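Worked example

This section walks through a single chain of length 296. The input is the sequence exactly as stored; nothing has been trimmed or padded.
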Amino acid sequence: MPEFKKPALEDRQWASECVNASGLMGCEYSFSNIYIWSETYKTKIARYKDFLIARSGSGNEVRYSMPAGRGSIKEPLDEIIKDAGQTGGAVRLYGVTEPHIAVINELYPGRFSFQEYRDGFDYIYFTEKLARLSGKKYHSKKNHLNSFLKSYVWEYRPIDKSNIADCVELHAKWREMDRNRDRTDLGHEVCALSLALEHFFELGMFGAIIKADGQNVAFTLADRINDRVADVHFEKAIDEFSGAYAAINQMFCENALRGFEFVNREEDLGIEGLRKAKLSYHPDILLAKYTAVEND
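Given that input, the structure is written out below as tokens.
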């Protein structure tokens, strides 16, 4: 049976190889995401042959990721079912996509029910479109960007050891700004973002920071899911600098993500403003996610 353990930095290489071989596009498969959110979701991981499996939660609320690797998922799914049997709870699978549903129904006819999880849909875009912002549907985004470019003396730089401290400083400022906002998940996000900055280089992450009029005003942190898909984990900007969000988004796609066909900007968590913002960039793929639960 798979041996589940807390994710460690040294797991990054094999886990990423499994995900890359799978071709999966969901943000839950980025190793950086698994690592920085592991405390929040009580996540452990296991390697079963050439598959990555994540297990989250505890007790009767344990959930498993769909196995990520090359080839048939029948064996790793069988192992998940055995592991779940030890807890006495029903098997719960997350990150289930529509192609997964077809496979599960073929392997285990009538055994699972599926529930759509709209708040967890991933917003995926062609990188080239976000880099160019061409056409009528991106007109307002281009205006926000141009306003920023004309209003400030700005500098875009990739994140490296010389400016990672600037991101930490900007993160602290953003935390102070958001302290009174109605977000119950902010504490968890702060912890995850702090971990991402602390282990930025060990996790193989990449990102960028923008200065405007001598101040740090925006940064973004990203990782790769596979050779075709980059995953933007965090994007933070100071609201008083108009167009800063549009600028960091466009510049990062233009300068850092050209090697990826797609950029996954993750889910909206059911937050109305976040959903509106992500939809306003016109996703090319709205990756539907489902939860699969074993029938009684």
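What to look for: The radius of gyration is 20 Å.
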